[in-house]
Specification:
There is one protein chain. The protein contains 8 helices and no strands. By secondary structure, the chain is an all-alpha fold. Helix 5 runs antiparallel to helix 8, helix 6 runs antiparallel to helix 7 and helix 7 (160-185) packs antiparallel against helix 8 (197-238). The chain is globular. Keywords: Cytoplasm, Iron, Metal-binding. GO terms for molecular function: metal ion binding. Pfam families: Hemerythrin, ScdA_N.
Length: 239
């Protein structure tokens, strides 16, 4: 069975650069096959496979293999690096967007749309991260503790893994659409030539925020969630 594009990137993140180049969403829609992704983008799958092969043979050192990390280490990394980054950057970007919308919103109405989308996204992201930190992550940790100590664990029929992974993956797809909309409205984060330093800084912050969130969602959708689901299955089959 052919790997999904999410699995391809999980195996080697260098492939993400290839998918990015052709606008293929590997983080929020990583469950689709390479064939489906190529059909949607009207790309030659043979040529894309060749490019992926060439990229992975390149001289650059292989990135960190997050797929091999223990789940507890991966959860800690996501919380400490990506959740913390998101929480810290949201008010900063909000302030910058508010300022440039007030100054340039009349001449560039797309800024107001970007601001509205970002506000919605920031609220939803906070809710999603809270759900992960208060419900999903502790449950995964509980399973890991039971496994490490060779103990049985009662898992209810409607377990958090079943419920929340599906809900979060769905929410991630929505976030992906919002971010792609911001990317389009900002012309790939390209400010007008005569824009101010604040205008340019805002777009730099938005681009960095998008890149971090893209990788954040990739780690969860393509590595953490599948491995957690498999762990849950281990406990169900052992009962």
């Amino acid at each position: 069975m052919e790997r999904s594009i999410g699995q391809i990137v999980a195996d080697d993140y260098r492939s993400a650069a290839v998918f990015d180049r052709y606008g293929i969403d590997f983080c929020c829609n990583g469950d689709q096959s390479l064939e489906t992704a190529c059909q949607q983008k009207q790309l030659d799958i043979v040529e894309l496979r060749k490019l992926l092969h060439t990229t992975l043979l390149g001289p650059k050192p292989k990135p960190t293999d997050f797929k091999s990390w223990p789940l507890d280490l991966l959860i800690n990394y996501i919380e400490k690096k990506h959740h913390r980054y998101t929480v810290e950057k949201i008010p900063v970007i909000h302030r910058y967007l508010n300022d440039i919308c007030r100054e340039y919103g009349a001449q560039h109405p797309e800024l107001n749309q970007i601001f509205e989308i970002f506000i919605t996204s920031s609220v939803e992201l906070r809710v999603q991260m809270e759900m992960e930190e208060l419900v999903l992550f502790p449950f995964i940790q509980k399973m890991l503790t039971a496994k490490y100590n060779s103990k049985t664990l009662h898992i209810p029929h409607f377990a958090p893994i079943n419920i929340h992974v599906l809900a979060l993956a769905h929410n991630h797809r929505i976030e992906g659409k919002r971010l792609r909309k911001i990317e389009a409205l900002s012309h790939n984060y390209t400010p007008p030539e005569d824009s101010s330093k604040a205008y340019k800084k805002t777009f730099v912050l938005l681009r960095e925020f998008y890149k971090d969130l893209q990788f954040h969602i990739h780690l969860e959708n393509n590595i953490l969630f599948p491995k957690s689901t498999l762990l849950e299955k281990e406990f169900r089959t052992s009962v």
